[in-house]
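User: Reviewer 2 asked us to show a designed sequence for the structure in our supplementary figure. I'm pasting the structure tokens here. Could you produce the per-position amino acids so we can include them in the response letter?
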């Protein structure tokens, strides 16, 4: 009788999971089966000129696909690719795409594309995609995905962060196996997680390390040659190095915890050590901020429509209120075409 009951519960659980998967898939497909809610163009020029790449979240055809707008015309028609992504990063010649493959049983992967939209590399992710960034010359790419949980407000979440060569996909190993120093002292807490890498160059990066039990996070500076990371500043998440290399934008917990946590954008000056919390933004920002230029930050925020979001801009000195930059968009990546 006991095993019959266990089997019945298992069947019901599997049925519930399948039903949830079918519902989510139906919702996703439903958003793509009507004309787009925004003006779009063909994909011909999506990888040309100085541009902003992002995940298109406008309802209708093209929902969930990578899109591009000219940097000097972010409100203009968006060039749609045929590449679906949850998270994107880009250089002048490469696109990093973290993807959820929807269906009865979701799977997750990372893919690299060239500027013609041709896939170059692919590898699996352990769970829901979260963050991705390139090194300045595009030779390295970092990815973060959830192993358990699906958001940083989830109690007890776990992440996996990796750095790979874009030439062949070779991996530098799990960051949790690297040596960690907190305030100069070796540290190896069992519940440590890393996320949100931003590169200085091909040898140095910044990231977040968080200890779930203690509820504390640090900005750490990583050395790829020695496989070491050293703490720099407490209460920092999802760092993003400015184009001039002098400041780090990040999100800081300024209230709540768990499901009620509130993150506020902040900027850390590397030379002076000064932190400026940009509380002109009153909404909770759960994103890895991007820099439009040395004076302006970009980040995504969900709007009032389920599955939709907008990209906002905010001055890095906090001197003015945030402004809508690209509606119906997520995961912005600023690309300079180069000489």
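Assistant: Here is a per-position design you can include in the supplement:
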């Amino acid at each position: 009788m006991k095993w019959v009951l266990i089997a019945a519960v298992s069947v019901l659980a599997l049925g519930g999971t399948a039903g949830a998967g079918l519902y989510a898939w139906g919702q996703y497909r439903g958003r793509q089966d009507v004309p787009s809610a925004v003006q779009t163009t063909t994909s011909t020029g999506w990888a040309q000129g100085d541009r902003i790449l992002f995940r298109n979240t406008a309802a209708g055809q093209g929902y969930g696909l990578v899109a591009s707008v000219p940097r000097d015309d972010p409100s203009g028609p968006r060039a749609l690719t045929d590449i679906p992504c949850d998270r994107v990063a880009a250089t002048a010649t490469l696109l990093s795409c973290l993807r959820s493959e929807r269906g009865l049983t979701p799977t997750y992967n990372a893919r690299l594309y060239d500027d013609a939209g041709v896939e170059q590399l692919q590898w699996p992710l352990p769970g829901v995609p979260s963050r991705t960034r390139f090194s300045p010359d595009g030779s390295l790419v970092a990815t973060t995905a959830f192993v358990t949980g699906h958001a940083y407000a989830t109690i007890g979440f776990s992440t996996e962060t990796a750095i790979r060569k874009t030439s062949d996909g070779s991996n530098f190993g799990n960051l949790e196996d690297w040596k960690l120093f907190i305030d100069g002292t070796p540290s190896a807490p069992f519940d440590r997680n890393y996320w949100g890498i931003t590169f200085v160059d091909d040898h140095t990066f910044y990231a977040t390390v968080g200890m779930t039990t203690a509820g504390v996070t640090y900005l750490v500076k990583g050395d790829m040659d020695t496989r070491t990371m050293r703490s720099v500043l407490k209460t920092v998440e999802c760092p993003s190095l400015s184009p001039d290399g002098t400041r780090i934008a990040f999100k800081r917990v300024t209230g709540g915890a768990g499901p009620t946590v509130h993150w506020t954008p902040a900027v850390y000056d590397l030379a002076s050590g000064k932190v400026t919390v940009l509380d002109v933004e009153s909404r909770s920002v759960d994103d890895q901020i991007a820099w439009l230029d040395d004076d302006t930050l970009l980040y995504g925020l969900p709007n009032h429509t389920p599955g939709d979001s907008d990209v906002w801009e905010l001055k890095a000195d906090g001197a003015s209120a945030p402004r809508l930059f690209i509606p119906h968009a997520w995961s912005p990546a600023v690309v300079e075409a180069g000489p």
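For the response letter, you might also mention the following. Residues 2-32 form the longest helix (31 residues). The first strand starts at residue 40 and ends at 41.
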